[in-house]
């Protein structure tokens, strides 16, 4: 379907597909909303009217207290495998899609409230969010954007002036999330579960029109759609791995069809390099540990393939054979992206030369429990002093360093390897001071630091180092 370029002209193309895919729903008003943050750069890109930019009018809209005439709030339906267990109906239990907009580059985005109250899919929940998960998602999603990782974005964060009951009573908040779409592998699973072939075809065509319009000329568009989603997810997970990022809850309802990172509940960045690292409190067996993310990506893609089988070929056996052939390329595709990302991090352009150097370096990092971010950042220094200190000038490191110096052909590594990441203990400090004292000083300072993650600045020297032993955060929580 055509998407015409218009100035802030909200549309609702997804709702036009079928009323089976969403439930109309209004946000639940809150008592005393206050601004936490507003993203003016993103608002300018989205052509949001300036009367909503951190104003009283904007506060009413982004708290859910007022529904503007251009919004048609709806909770989206989806299914999902949660820790490998299929649930045929999940859906937005605490989120509402307000509208779609075309940005100044004619790209389509969803604008969604998250934490705005109960919906028909709340499954007994309160539909609210404590302030902690809102601050975490705002900081981490915007940091991921600055780190050049495809991601949903944060447009606004608002305190509700109300309490949310979890293990304890906590201040409530609402996030305004922006995404290229909120369509997930779990959405496709939901549509398949409806057993309506025509709707399944319309849905797949919509995904192609919105995210992969180049496939409209393909002789086999639905197989090509599988290939395209697989390609973007392989590239995305390679970027995660190259930064030490651990998503924490890679259920199929948390894998987007657009290739963006979505849902930052129990996410974290690894510090000391250990492939088995996990943080999520609910991931008891480490299904979504750092080292497992590529395999889980493949598993999720296989579930997406299942939803497309009726469209790939009328003959079920042929459809399975074609989809299987595509899926079997995932690992090689991922590894190609991964080794390219990692080769850039050490400045060695020849992959065959880079790969053994990277493997040796990671082994050294694991053996000595070296901070992932600093280990790569310090390679971009003009002198080796900081790296020497990091590895305590060990013989094994010195041998590796000499071999690497002979192979490297890029001195611009500070443009590739960040100085700053959203370290767990810093996010926790921001959350605790906001929760316990209503103080956003640390949150605001983190925003400033993470806005330019590749540039070291003296004023953030105190936040450059990994957590001390007493500061380490070993478990993260969803907040639902």
Write out key terms for the chains shown.
alpha+beta, 480 residues, two-stranded antiparallel ribbon, 6-stranded antiparallel sheet, 12 strands, globular
Order of helices and strands: EEHHEEEEEEHEEHHHEEHHHHHHHHH
Return Rg in Å: 23 Å
The major sheet is characterized as: 6 strands, antiparallel
Task: Tell me the fraction of residues in β-strands, as a range.
Answer: 5-15%
Average pLDDT for all residues:
95
What is the share of helical residues? 40-55%
Helix/strand-derived class? alpha+beta
Total DSSP E strands: 12
Termini distance?
36 Å
Shape: globular
Query: Low-confidence runs (pLDDT<50, min 5 residues)?
Result: 1-7
Q: What's the total helix number?
A: 15
């Amino acid at each position: 379907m055509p998407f015409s370029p218009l100035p802030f002209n909200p549309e609702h193309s997804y709702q036009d597909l079928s009323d089976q895919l969403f439930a109309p729903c209004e946000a639940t008003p809150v008592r005393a909303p206050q601004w936490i943050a507003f993203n003016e750069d993103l608002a300018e890109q989205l052509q949001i009217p300036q009367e909503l930019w951190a104003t009283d009018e904007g506060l009413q809209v982004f708290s859910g207290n007022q529904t503007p005439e251009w919004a048609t709030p709806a909770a989206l339906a989806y299914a999902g495998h949660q820790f490998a267990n299929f649930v045929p109906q999940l859906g937005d239990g605490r989120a509402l899609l307000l509208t779609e907009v075309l940005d100044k580059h004619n790209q389509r985005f969803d604008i969604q409230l998250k934490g705005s109250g109960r919906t028909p899919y709340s499954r007994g929940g309160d539909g609210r969010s404590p302030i902690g998960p809102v601050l975490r998602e705002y900081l981490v999603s915007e940091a991921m954007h600055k780190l050049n990782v495809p991601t949903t974005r944060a447009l606004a964060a608002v305190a509700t002036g109300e309490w949310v009951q979890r293990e304890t009573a906590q201040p409530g908040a609402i996030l305004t999330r922006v995404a290229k779409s909120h369509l997930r592998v779990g959405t496709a699973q939901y549509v398949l579960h409806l057993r309506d072939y025509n709707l399944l075809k319309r849905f797949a065509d919509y995904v192609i029109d919105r995210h992969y319009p180049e496939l409209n000329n393909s002789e086999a568009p639905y197989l090509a759609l599988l290939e395209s989603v697989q390609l973007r997810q392989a590239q995305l997970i390679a970027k995660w791995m190259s930064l030490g990022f651990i998503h924490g809850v890679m259920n199929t309802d948390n894998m987007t069809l657009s290739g963006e990172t979505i849902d930052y509940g129990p996410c974290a960045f690894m510090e000391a390099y250990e492939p088995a690292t996990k943080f999520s409190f609910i991931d008891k067996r480490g299904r979504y540990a750092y080292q497992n993310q590529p395999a889980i990506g493949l598993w999720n893609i296989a579930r997406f393939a299942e939803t497309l089988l009726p469209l790939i070929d009328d003959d079920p056996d042929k459809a399975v054979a074609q989809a299987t052939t595509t899926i079997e390329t995932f690992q090689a595709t991922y590894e190609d992206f991964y080794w390219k990302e990692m080769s850039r991090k050490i400045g060695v352009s020849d992959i065959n030369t880079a790969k053994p150097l990277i493997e040796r370096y990671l082994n050294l990092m694991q053996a000595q429990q070296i901070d992932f971010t600093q280990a790569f950042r310090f390679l971009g220094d003009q002198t080796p002093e900081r790296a020497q200190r990091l590895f305590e000038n060990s013989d094994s490191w010195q041998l590796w360093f000499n071999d690497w110096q002979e192979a490297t052909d890029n001195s611009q590594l500070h443009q590739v390897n960040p100085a700053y990441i959203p370290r767990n203990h810093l996010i926790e400090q921001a959350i605790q001071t906001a929760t316990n004292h209503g103080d956003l000083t640390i949150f605001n300072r983190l925003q400033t630091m993470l806005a330019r993650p590749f540039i070291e600045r003296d004023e953030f020297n105190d936040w450059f180092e990994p957590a001390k032993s007493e500061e380490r955060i070993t478990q993260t929580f969803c907040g639902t």
